[in-house]
Write a structure and sequence with these properties.
Largest sheet: 9 strands, mixed
Helix content: 25-40%
Strand content: 15-25%
Number of strands: 11
CATH superfamily: Spore Coat Polysaccharide Biosynthesis Protein SpsA, Chain A
Radius of gyration: 18 Å
Order of helices and strands: EHEHEHEEHEEHHHEEEHHEHH
CATH topology: Spore Coat Polysaccharide Biosynthesis Protein SpsA, Chain A
């Protein structure tokens, strides 16, 4: 039977985490799966709730907080015997059948290294969770929040793939790590997430490396999840998260020498 590890990084989002886990377990999942929660900061209430209500969930407690990539990599390294790893943000509500649809896609398309579902806002509108690789212009516009002041920039709209009508499984440059299933054999080849990205862009970078090594990255609209989309780095300009967003954007520029859109030509 397919072995699936579900990894959730919790950064003091206990109430949302409960809804995420409850939605995950609300419908049967065909795979043999294990849920791993990483408490990035101590949160006694969440620890007690998991121990009382979901003792089968494995809890990892960090002594000091780590970046998103570091936490994901730590969880994967400690759980090597799985076929796939499903990354779930604690602000996600899984819809029935989402997990099975993602796993089935991986099982039937052996050159697919990563798949993301359709993410929805609480009002049901579709989030642009599948994107093209960012151009230098788009990266700077978004890092400095210029696109918030000047909406509907054609370059940004293209980056967000607003010009595509997704009717089924589609190859895309990258999918966001809010919900993403990864193939173990692909990770063995391309490596885990780049821990130089403390927060943000680690998902885009990983997808680029998958394409560089001949793996496909796909978007699967029939698999769905609601996503509150905290995105503090995009919504709170003077937050620490926004500092990480800007820093990671420039790390991407340096890593790909300003040619991110052609990273796998």
């Amino acid at each position: 039977m397919t072995q699936l590890a579900v990894i959730i990084i919790n950064h003091q989002h206990g109430d949302m985490l409960k809804k995420t886990i409850e939605s995950l377990m609300a419908s049967p999942i065909e795979s043999d799966y294990k849920v791993i929660v990483v408490n990035n900061l101590p949160e006694e209430a969440t620890t007690n709730w998991l121990e009382s209500n979901n003792p089968q969930v494995e809890l990892i407690e960090n002594e000091t907080p780590k970046g998103f990539a570091s936490n994901i990599n730590m969880a994967i390294r400690q759980h090597q015997g799985f076929d796939y790893y499903l990354l779930l943000n604690p602000d996600v509500t899984c819809q029935p059948g989402m997990v099975d649809a993602l796993v089935s896609t991986m099982e039937h398309h052996l050159k697919v290294g990563a798949v993301g579902p359709q993410l929805l806002d609480p009002d049901g509108s579709v989030q642009p969770s599948r994107r093209r690789f960012a151009s230098f212009f788009v990266l700077v516009m978004r890092a400095l929040h210029v696109d918030s002041l000047l909406p509907n920039l054609s370059a940004v709209d293209r980056y967000l793939m607003k010009d595509v009508n997704f009717l089924g499984m589609t190859d895309v440059d990258w999918v966001t790590g809010a919900v993403m299933i990864l193939r173990k054999t692909a990770l063995d080849q391309v490596g885990l997430m780049d821990e130089r990205f403390f927060l943000y862009f680690e998902d885009e970078d990983l997808c680029c490396r998958l394409w560089q090594n001949g793996w496909r990255v796909c978007y699967l609209p029939k698999a769905q999840a609601y996503h509150i989309h905290l995105a503090e780095g995009r919504k709170k300009i003077f937050s620490k998260a926004n500092f990480h967003h800007i820093a990671s954007a420039f790390k991407m520029l340096l890593k790909y020498h300003g040619k991110i859109t052609r990273c796998y030509d």
